[in-house]
Amino acid sequence: MWAIETKQLTKTYGERGGCQGISLQVPRGSIFGLLGPNGAGKSTLVKVLVGLLHKTSGEATILGRPVTDVSARRRVGFLPENFRYHEWLTGEDLLRLHGVLFGLSAREMEERLDKVLNQVGLAEKRKQKVGTYSKGMQQRIGLACALLPDPELLFLDEPTSAMDPVGRKEVRDLLLQWQAEGKTIFLNSHLLSELETICDQIAVIKEGQLLYQGDWRALAKRPKQVRVVMDEAELERARMLGVKMDDVTPVAESLEDLFLAMVAGQ
Predict the structure, then answer these.
(1) Angle, CA of 26, 165 and 222, to the nearest 5°
(2) Strand partners of residue 77
(3) d(Cα 159, Cα 80) in Å, to the nearest integer?
(4) Which of 47, 72, 141, 185 could form a disulfide with 52 if both were Cys (CB 3.0 to 4.6 A apart)?
(5) What is the pLDDT of residue 120?
């Protein structure tokens, strides 16, 4: 059974934007990365999968159940890209509020509070108001909120965007720890370095269309192609110099080079 499966999933806003015809299969227990430039449709896809947006057409299941199934959504944690928390609440109060919304018992609440605050490095800041947190600390408390109900499936939309390099490394270590605990992690990012260091598989999306899905290592080994666009003057100059396009051997040395070539050439 797949953790996430979509078949020709489409969400459009009128006739513009969104995502179109997305067919994905995310293995259970994997860290799966969705890669694409800003505005590619990554957040739209995630919001459909967590039930915040209704699909236009197609099919989608999470943990073997339709995305509209409440029992499946109870097993999901979500950190949105653009989030704002109640600035007057302390970190602990914010987590307690989320715990009530999740329906945690008092016993579960106490057990989970200490654990997640320690994991995200905010145990000593739990009595501090969220409004005084730095951007990185707010990102961490967001991760704590997503992790609080001990979900089987975590959706994280740009989870390290406000963090410094040390913070990013710490979050990568946490993701690997959560994977070892059996969780499936669906990670949205436009940072290639974040995905190629941690993800088992990736999907590449551009302008709402799925370009690739699979092991990023296999993607990096694919034959590289680069399209060169020249105006007439440049083409004539190349001919005068005797340049033959067959003599040109483009090289993409990294996943980032390949991704940029794909985005420019597709």
Answers:
(1) 45
(2) 154
(3) 8
(4) 47
(5) 86
SS3 assignment, position 62? strand
Q: What is the pLDDT of residues 17-54, one digit of tens each?
A: 788 888 999 999 899 988 887 777 888 888 899 888 89
Instruction: Write the single-letter amino acid at 221.
Output: K
Instruction: Please report, to the nearest 10 degrees, the dihedral formed by the alpha carbons of residues 254, 79, 22, 172 taken in order.
Output: 30
pTM, to two decimals: 0.77
Report the DSSP pairing between strands 76-79 and 153-157: parallel
Of 131, 138, 144, 135, the residue nearest 98 (C-alpha): 144
Q: Give the C-alpha distances (Å, rounded to integers) separating 196 from 36, 117, 179.
A: 13, 27, 16
pLDDT at 7: 93
Burial 40-62 (b: 16+ CB within 10 A, else e): bbbbbbbbbbbbebebeebebbb
Q: Which residue has the higher pLDDT, 159 or 152?
A: 152
